Amino acid sequence: MVLSYDKEEDVSMNATVKILRTIGSPFASEQELFENKKEDLKLYECAEKNKIGLLYLEALKEEGCLNKLQSEYEKHKKNQREHLTTAVRISSLLNSKKIKYCVVKSLMPFSFVPNDVDILIFNSWNQFEEIIKTAKKSGYDVIGEAPLEVMIHDARNEKHKNPKEKDIYDIDLYRELGAINIIYLDKNLLEKHVTKTALFEENISILKPGAELATVFVHSIFPEQIFTLHLYYTALHYLSKMNAEDINDFISIVKENNITFAVKTVISIIAVLHEVAHGFIPEKIRIITSELGKNNFETTKLYKKILKTPHKYLFLTIIIILLEKMKEKKAAKSIMWQMLKILNPKTMLYVIRVVVERRRRETY
To answer: Rounded to an integer, what distance in angstroms lies between the CA atom of residue 174 and that of residue 172?
Structure first.
């Protein structure tokens, strides 16, 4: 099922496809730019909501079309450098203390400026507390805590201005990958997929592409509940460099971690968007959907919304994903523990407030 956008005039309805055609795809050579500069500004706003503002600006820059967006481009590049420096500084500290860790959801295979730096700590929970003490002694301020993570701020330039807003100097240190008390990925299963990459002459621990891709897919649904085009380009850039063995490894990771429904949901949306924007579905995506299946409920909603992004996942999708995770001992235990905690009226009100806020917001 492919929709035609030739007769659509409302930019808000067409923005997704126009952005995808402007930026292009690693699997498609054609690129389409739009001459209406007012439209460029509206498309940029949509790209920002989809967490690909810099990628969109780079596409315009390559064609000499930045114009009034030049200052936005320069701001993004500065923030990108500062964010990478934040990732390198915390990695250097963890390396010096011989702490087992990896950077997750923060270093993408394309130009990208995330909200903060996410670090998964593989050491025990007791050792985790010592790591926080070490960070505080090394110029990092603790700005928030949750059951599975501690938020710190790299105070190399200044103190955190607004604790309610994330910035490029913020770091989330995870005991486990999860939200509230619910663990959505077992770090013991992820640790074997850690590799090294060099950044600013520092060796940084990261996840291999298959494990990283699985992580960002799941995280977008639980806890974020929103699909952004950042996922689309993360998938395309990783998959374009994967061979048949890498694809099989990715599928194995998905099945081992009981996240089949989550991954097939995201990859189904990506398949639809690529087909509408470029006229075909890449073979590597076809292989994955053939093995894992598709989420037709989610893509039907996407069509009904005229491919508007960011896209809010169906609540049913989130429930099915949590039910699938119940097959896994650690996840099941964390879900049951969270259900018990909700019996406390204060906790129940907090959880309800968080869920409602996430269902109402347009992006994250």
So the answer is: 6
Q: Does domain 95-207 have CATH number 3.30.460.40?
A: yes
Distance CA 239, CA 299 (A): 21
Task: Identify the burial level of 29 via C-beta atoms within 10 angstroms of its C-beta, where 0-12 means exposed, 13-18 middle and 19 or more buried.
Answer: exposed
Nearest Cα to Cα of residue 227 among 51, 15, 26: 51
Three-state DSSP state, 81: helix
Residues of the chain with pLDDT under 70: 1-13, 30-39, 163
Instruction: Summarize the chain as % helix, strand, coil (round to 5).
Output: 55, 15, 30
Where in the chain are the domains?
95-207
Q: Return d(Cα 260, Cα 99) in angstroms, integer.
A: 31
Output the pLDDT for position 348: 79
Sign (positive/negative) of CA torsion 111, 116, 117, 122? negative
pLDDT of residue 38: 53
Distance of CA 192 to the CA centre of its chain: 21
Q: What is the pTM of this model?
A: 0.91
Residues 6 or more apart whose CB falls under 8 angstroms from that of 64 comprise none
pLDDT value at residue 267: 98
Contact (Cβ atoms closer than 8 angstroms) between residue 44 and residue 22:
no
Q: Give the chain's radius of gyration (CA, Å).
A: 20
